[in-house]
Specification:
The protein is 44% helix and 17% strand. The protein is of the alpha+beta class and 500 residues long. It folds into three domains: 7-149, 2-Layer Sandwich (BirA Bifunctional Protein, domain 2), CATH 3.30.930; 252-342, no CATH class; 355-499, no CATH class.
Length: 500
């Protein structure tokens, strides 16, 4: 019976779909029915423990109450709420008092007015509800009692503010009464029970007040954090707007205005020009001009018939340093885009091989660096290592695509006793270039590990060390594949060795 729709909406919807006429201004649109039971039912072992209840009993009470509401009011009951946030579980049911015969709102017809008829109808209503809860062991209150109904909030306010009077003489020990009998009699005394309920309600009220204070403190702290975050986001947003504006070109209409042109019939005219501006582009329709381009600098150059340097100075005088920089950045972006699109790429060229120098390079790798000769020759035959005209060892760097291409080279000097030269051939793509080789296995086999090294020579040496640790014999025939590679993550002479 409960959903997220506001109660007012549910009531108005029910009235609009059922009644034939517009309700009177003084008509009761909705009636609130309060359903509950005594604390002894919900917590039979200790009724004084306000805010606690037996779950099974609470569910039985809610189910029986729901069935009674449906049987008596059907869809006229637009909402029923089970409240568990006070001392004892209770239900608030909201009923739209519609007369089935007349299809009119009539609270008096459903519940009676202010006289005896109302008392009779309410008494029958209580009888009906008591019968529905009887299977749970809940008995009806005293029929015909003169006790008046007190609202829940008013009741809790009263029990927490008005002291209960206790007649101590009435609770004094009686002759021949044992201590246990006295205890049971005092425990069963109604005044004592009321005091226990009052104390329990006070404890519950204090507990709820404490929780509310904690929630309020946490909410205030969260509010302060959110306010601070809002300020930070606003500052970041302002900075982003500033940066965005700096990356945008100057508005061409502002530049045209500063150039002394006047706007007429959708065109900017003056000085022999008839210019149409469309965003960042412009076109001059004047018979002797007829030129189109884009950007603030180009517009100034076109109208003032000046060069780029003069146009930047002119913009600086009219729009300040920030404006001139914006225009210059936009011009640079345009020029860069054209260059990127039109300028031909020069492919990387490996150093020219000098075969006569290979023996010296091979001797350096095998004798001074201790790399097995058959392994060096294998790399040489595959074109991964060779000599250039300066007797440098050239290690070919390739990309990792399906069809690897040479996109760089790492050079290591070998001439002389103490040659320490090392570097990259001009044009090498260090971000994408790898020195690597495969021995045995398949290139698609999974990688086992990655090791960072300083140079291709260290990668080759480490690969040979791996063979020795595994008991393998360096050479062409190996039981497992070794993958050695050179990668330069913007760190000088950084190599990755992978074996798998």
């Amino acid at each position: 019976m409960e959903d997220g729709t506001p109660l007012e909406v549910l009531v108005k919807t029910k009235i609009a779909s059922t009644t034939k006429h517009k309700p009177r201004k003084d008509a009761v649109l909705c009636s609130d029915i309060f359903l509950s039971a005594s604390p002894e039912y919900f917590r039979p072992h200790d009724p004084s423990k306000a805010g606690e209840w037996d779950d099974d009993r609470m569910v039985d009470f809610a189910s029986a109450s729901r069935a009674w509401l449906i049987n008596n009011y059907g869809d006229k009951c637009v909402r029923a709420e089970l409240h568990l946030d006070e001392a004892t579980p209770h239900i608030h049911a909201y009923v739209v008092p519609i007369n089935e015969k007349t299809k009119q709102l009539s609270h008096k017809e459903m519940f009676g007015g202010n006289g005896g008829a109302a008392s009779i109808k309410l008494s029958k209503l209580q009888d009906s509800y008591a019968a529905a809860l009887a299977p749970l062991g809940i008995e009806r209150g005293v029929k015909g009692s003169k006790a008046t109904h007190t609202k829940v909030k008013e009741y809790y306010q009263a029990v927490n503010s008005e002291p209960l009077l206790l007649e101590l003489d009435r609770l004094a020990p009686r002759p021949d009464e044992t201590a246990q009998q006295l205890y049971e009699r005092i425990k069963a005394d109604r005044a004592i029970q009321d005091i226990n309920h009052q104390l329990a309600d006070r404890r519950l009220s204090l507990s709820q007040s404490h929780r509310a204070e904690l929630k309020s403190f946490a909410s205030d702290k969260l509010r302060q954090q959110l306010e601070q975050r809002v300020l930070e986001l606003e500052a970041e947003n302002f900075q982003w707007r500033q940066q965005t504006n700096q990356l945008r070109d100057l508005p061409l209409v502002d530049v045209a205005w500063e150039l002394g042109l006047h706007h007429d019939l959708g065109k900017w005219k003056g000085h022999g020009h008839i210019i149409n501006i469309d965003g960042s582009k412009f076109y001059d329709f004047a018979p002797e001009q007829q030129k189109g381009s884009g950007g603030a600098i180009d517009l100034v150059m076109h109208v003032n018939n000046c060069n780029l340097r003069q146009a930047v100075v002119w913009l600086h005088e009219r729009f300040g340093e920030a404006g001139a920089e914006r225009a210059a950045i936009a011009k640079t972006k345009t020029v860069a885009a054209e260059i990127i699109q039109l300028e031909p790429r020069t492919p990387f060229q490996l150093p020219v091989e000098e075969k006569s120098k290979w023996s010296s390079v091979s001797n350096y790798l095998t004798q001074k660096r201790g790399i097995p000769e058959n392994f060096v020759e294998l790399l040489h035959k595959r074109g991964l290592v060779y000599a250039d005209d300066q007797q440098n060892a050239v290690f070919v760097m390739r990309n990792l695509g399906e069809e690897p291409q040479a996109i760089g080279a790492f050079l290591r000097g070998t001439r002389g006793e103490n040659n320490t030269f090392k570097g990259y051939e001009k044009g090498t793509k260090r971000r994408e270039g790898w020195f690597y080789f495969h021995l045995g296995g398949q290139p698609t086999d999974p990688v086992e590990k990655v090791v960072l090294l300083k140079s291709p020579i260290d990668a080759v040496s480490f690969a040979m060390l791996e063979y020795q640790l595994r008991g393998d014999v360096p050479g062409i025939t190996v039981p497992k594949k070794v993958f050695c590679t050179l990668r330069n993550f913007q760190v000088p002479e950084t190599t990755i060795f992978r074996s798998y």
